[in-house]
Amino acid sequence: MITGKNYIGNEPSTLNGTAFKTFDPKLNLETEWTFYEATPEEVADAVDLAWNAFLEFRYFSGMKKASFLRKIADNIEDLGDELVQIYCKETGLPKGRAKGERGRTCFQLRTFADLVEEGSWVNATIDTAIPNREPGPKPDLRKMKIPIGPIAVFGASNFPLAYSTAGGDTASALASGCPVVVKSHPMHAGTGELVASAIVRAAKETGMPNGVFSNLNSSGIEVGQQLVKHPKIKGIGFTGSIAGGRALFDMAAQREEPIPVFAEMGSINPVVFLPKALKLKGKEWAKTYAGSITLGTGQFCTNPGLLLGLRSNALDGFVRTLSEEIIKIIPSCMLHPNIISKYDANKASVLNEENVSVTAEYSADVAINHARSTVVKVKGEAFIDNPRLHQEVFGPFSMVVECQDEHELTHAISGLEGQLTGTIVGVENELGAYKTVIESLENRVGRLIFNGVPTGVEVCPSMQHGGPYPASTDSRFGAVGIDAIQRWVRPISYQNWPNHLLPESLKNENPLGIQRLVNNEQTDAPI
Fold first, then answer.
1. Average pLDDT of the chain?
2. How far is residue 136 from each of residues 129, 130, 436, measured CA to CA in Å?
3. What number is the average pLDDT over the span 463-477?
4. How many CB atoms sit inside 10 A of residue 6's CB?
5. For residue 344, what are the contacts with CB-CB under 8 A and spacing of at least 6?
6. Would you say 28 and 43 are in contact if contact means Cβ atoms under 8 Å apart?
7. Using an 8 Å Cβ cutoff, are 216 and 192 in contact?
8. Is 324 one of the catalytic residues?
């Protein structure tokens, strides 16, 4: 049941008469639910509760945190069809997408549960004392990772489950021992409230301190600003636009105590088509990429928005087939009227640039809030000279860049901003001839793909979902996979500390049985 209230710790709260509604993009109507903006008092109360909870939660065992995370996943699944129906109503996305994203969300929660229950993620290292070392004794030093404090998580518009209320940021922060205050995304506040209720129930059922989780509604930027500026918030997780992520980053840096902002932002995910691949399978690749560009109405951060190749008959044939195939795909609904409005505006901005030609645009009638897929083409020299052509057009849009030679192709790639992904489509025996091209692409991306599509992000330890700025604010980390936990912790060393007062992970006996680096040797043996 949707109440429209905030969760301040375990308790629903409504102190503000200011209200807003979510929107059904398929019906082009507001939904029936009313949501109440969090007041500055509610924001302060949520953060104060989170800080008090942190003082206790940070010391919880991996087993206890794991039970909490697994219970969240169980409770989300127990929401059943109600969650799916509200998700679809607030996004225009199909039931299959809702169920798939719910499965991924619960998988992430259970993966972090397994991680913290096992315990080696704290990266414990021990260098024992050498009292008689000359010219001076060596102290006993032991190091591990500890949580940094309450984290503010901003829900993403395009992933109401996997990157929002109980998504990767929240799951990894809770796993690390950091309480979370979520700023719910206003486009799917109902979905967010249902998931928040599942988390709050799990907190109560597993004995978590009140304030380990809060959920705040806001249709504007004020609540987010208050969270970032609050001195008891110690880190930020964000998935969204470059403008939004950069604003949070700058605000956090201007605090008296600056804090880290881990933002995943824009990406056009360049794809390089090498000549032999286009000669052998150009039509097949064109059909594959027509599907990737339009998947989810192009509303993925890994959408292939830039396709590069060398001038040739094969590239011309690829563009013709891509253009033919993409207009065969019936347009689908975008997340919100504001999203499609920005798509149309950004697309129009690109089309108004010199030297850009349209090779395909869906021209038949479309339903309200359904996006017309578009492919444009530009020569390499014009692309290199005009950075405005490098900007993301969020939606079913892609730009083909025709380069006259390998040097121009390398130049075009080297001039790109940081990206989440880069793809090489080629024949294995031609890769050696394009070493410079591949190296240039590798330098700009977080994930390098061979003969595939960038859409689809596997949740596993080897996935890197981040890249050089502006793909993310810190290219060393991402929001996907178990390494996401490392964003919310810091190292601490204990020198000459009595063994019985050390954290369990660093004691001589190794009571947790975890892997540790002891005097430069990886082992789970006691000392």
1. 97
2. 11, 9, 51
3. 94
4. 29
5. none
6. no
7. no
8. no
- For 267-326, what is each residue's pLDDT tens digit? 999 999 999 999 999 999 999 999 999 999 999 999 999 999 999 999 999 999 999 999
Catalytic residue, chosen from 178, 301, 333, 403, is 301
| C-alpha to C-alpha distance for 132 and 134, rounded to whole angstroms | 6
**Residue 10 carries which DSSP code?**
T
Nearest to 182 by CA among 64, 41, 42, 18: 42
Query: H or E element: which one contains 195?
Result: helix 189-205
Give the closest residue to 484 by CA, choosing from 499, 494, 474: 474
The answer to whether 122 and 144 have CB atoms below 8 angstroms apart is yes
450 - beta bridge partners? 424
301 is catalytic: yes
Interatomic CA distance for residues 170 and 180, integer angstroms = 6
pLDDT over 90 for what percent of the chain? 97
- Catalytic-labelled residue, pool 37, 117, 264, 402: 264
Do 441 and 419 touch, CB atoms closer than 8 A? no
Tell me how far apart the alpha carbons of residues 470 and 454 are, in angstroms, rounded to a whole number: 17
Q: What is the DSSP letter of 474?
A: -
Q: Which helix (H) or strand (E) holds 62?
A: helix 62-78
Residue type, 499: N
Find how far residue 320's CA is from the centre of its chain.
34
| Cβ proximity of 55 and 156 under 8 Å | no
Residue tagged 């518009």 (tokens): 157
- Separation of alpha carbons 175 and 414, rounded Å: 38
Buried b (16+ CB within 10 A) or exposed e, 378-414: bbbbebbeeeebbebbbbbbbbbbbbeeeebbbbbbe
Residue recorded with tokens 């998504």? 167
Q: Which helix (H) or strand (E) holds 344?
A: helix 337-351
> What's the length of the chain?
527
